[in-house]
Write a structure and sequence with these properties.
single chain, 7-stranded antiparallel sheet, 5-stranded parallel sheet, 438 residues, alpha/beta, Rossmann fold, 15 helices
């Protein structure tokens, strides 16, 4: 079933008011969902992906806006907009726009965390927009907002890039041999071309195990190519003054560590557990529950010695209690780094893991210089706090059994760019030249 992909929603408890604003939106070529809202019959499920919502304040019968009216609005917003909707702009479409500040104060005081929070709030007064042309002018004013234009412009152009990527690949699928109205040859080519894309992307066995992932990943380069051709709205220039208005790199205003960690999590880490297999290349798992003797037999060092090699604290800067607290919060982990070609072709292989340490963020100035065998990855946000992640090329294990007791629970997966950094650092460490010198 095809889905409506409109990003605009209109909510009111009177059909004539919905018809009025929907007619104006259609004349401006803006498609919209509409909800005739009733407390007794709310939507079956909230909408997601909405970027602009027109909401009547008074969704009950009566003339006055009371606390009960405001509570009804809050419940309606929860019912209509999904908690994980993403950024959206709320437009109060009402004859009671003078009550907007009361609503905002009420939500801030009592329900801020429990209802979707808009990026921006604006108003269109039903009383002063009785004329259809006045209403269209007000809607146009709303859409002229820089933030709204940027949101819609980016999503629209992404959608067009998706369409162009489909055009590109379907030009390969279609060879023009079918007569008009027939598609037998096309259907066969479709199967052949996309089966080959899946095979070449993940390898034969992996593509058969994860066909949908193989197609998705195989189409990504085409989509990225089309996205690279996008021309963004010039309104972005007005929203980049921290960069464009900066006098020099030394005066640039960097983001705080929490925001930095959140961005790194988006760019470099995969937390969705899509494969859920401990021998997937790039997967990070907890180190299994090993005895001290077992740890020494696998890594040639005790857990205490291993942690010290990762976290060599400067005793002049870090107090003993502070060092102990940080080490107690650290976890030993393993990263699978076997050969990409063997993984892609699902060849029989020994699984290769580099030992690492996952530790909540602390003042890294407390450390002395770490060994050249250690790779430090960018700070990232995990389990509600920022973390450091280190890997040490001196501690590598390899075994053929994915059920090894060394492998604990899956934590996350490194995306390819970050995984390639770890493997490159590991390869460079192993290939260092040693010479005799006097």
């Amino acid at each position: 079933m095809l889905e409506n992909i409109s990003k605009v929603l209109v909510v009111d408890n009177e059909q004539r008011e919905i018809d009025k604003i929907n007619r104006a939106l259609r004349e401006l070529n803006i498609p919209a969902y509409t909800i005739l809202y009733s407390q007794a019959n709310p939507p079956a499920e909230p909408f997601s992906g909405i970027r602009l919502v027109f909401f009547d304040i008074k969704l009950q019968d009566g003339n006055d806006v009371t606390k009960q009216t405001i509570t009804s609005f809050e419940n309606a917003l929860r019912a209509c907009i999904h908690a994980e909707n993403g950024p959206f702009v709320l437009i109060f479409w009402s004859s009671h726009t003078d009550k907007v500040e009361d609503i905002k104060a009420h939500i801030e005081e009592r329900a801020e965390d429990s209802i979707p929070k808009p990026l921006l709030v604006d108003c269109i007064d039903k009383v002063t927009t009785g004329d259809p042309e006045d209403l269209k002018r007000e809607i146009t004013r709303v859409f002229d907002n820089d933030i709204i234009e940027i949101l819609f412009d980016y999503e629209t152009k992404i959608s067009k890039a998706v369409g162009k990527s489909l055009d590109t690949i379907f030009n390969v699928v279609s060879n023009g041999e079918d007569t008009w109205g027939n598609s037998d040859r096309f259907n066969d080519n479709f199967d052949l071309v996309f089966s080959n894309i899946a095979f070449q992307t993940l390898g034969f066995d992996n593509a058969r195990s994860y066909p949908l992932n193989a197609i998705r990943d195989g189409l990504n380069p085409i989509l990225i190519n089309e996205i690279g051709k996008m021309q963004l709205s010039p309104k972005w220039n007005d929203k980049l003054q921290k960069l464009l208005g900066c006098d020099g790199k030394s005066k640039f205003n960097y983001i705080d560590s929490l925001t930095l960690g959140r961005l790194n999590s988006i760019y470099h880490y995969d937390f969705n557990g899509e494969h859920g297999v401990k021998n997937d290349r790039g997967v990070v798992v907890c180190l299994g529950d090993l005895s001290e003797d077992e740890t020494i037999s696998y890594f040639g060092a005790s857990q205490k010695e291993i942690l010290h090699s990762f976290l060599p604290f400067d005793s002049r800067k870090a107090r003993k209690a502070e060092r102990r607290q940080i080490k107690d919060s650290a976890s030993l982990v393993l990263l699978e780094v076997s050969a990409a070609c063997d993984y892609a072709q699902a060849n029989p292989r020994n699984y290769v893991y580099i030992l690492g340490v996952l530790v909540p963020e602390f003042d890294s100035d407390l450390l002395t210089t770490q060994a050249s065998s250690i790779t430090r990855l960018p700070t990232f946000f995990f389990n509600q706090k920022c973390h450091y992640l280190f890997f040490n090329s001196r501690y590598v294990v390899s075994f053929p059994d994915v059920n090894s007791k060394l492998l604990g629970d899956i934590l996350f997966r490194l995306k390819n760019e970050l995984l390639n950094k770890v493997i490159t650092d590991h390869t460079n460490y192993l290939s260092r030249l040693g010479i005799i010198q006097f």
